[in-house]
Amino acid sequence: MPSLLTVRGNAVQPLLLMFPFGLLAVAVILDVFRALGAPHLVGTLAYCTIAAGLVGGAMTAGALWIDALATRDRTAGPQRFLLDLAVLVVFAVVLLLRMRTPDRTAPTGVLVVELLGLTIAAAGAWYGAGAVRPRAERGMSR
């Protein structure tokens, strides 16, 4: 079912998803650099980037849920929302675990959980992009 959130006929959902996805991906990259020996400041920057990604992700999830309710999409909308919610929960747990460290850096186990969360986010973005393609690309006619 087509999205109601559009700008000039293009779905807004991929744009809404990419900003928090990008922030969370940058946080994982910064944590990998920190694990390879970068200064503690890089780990603290990754912590702040995760916090910003969670705020953006929560706002995006709200917009996507409203769109799914408005279109009465009973399958793809809730599935995309649950994938996005899983990513937010994983990174919220990561953020809480990092709060316990004095310099807000991620231990190796937390880095593995971040990579798992990023994999779920990539799967959700791929699934969501396939669900909001224009009808002509999916082979459907009006």
TrEMBL record:
Domain of life: Bacteria
Domain DUF2231 per the UniProt entry, residue ranges: 12-132
Name of one Pfam family that matches: DUF2231
Membrane-spanning segments: 12-33, 45-66, 78-97, 109-129
Keyword Membrane: yes
Keywords: Membrane, Transmembrane, Transmembrane helix
InterPro entries recorded: DUF2231_TM
Protein name: DUF2231 domain-containing protein
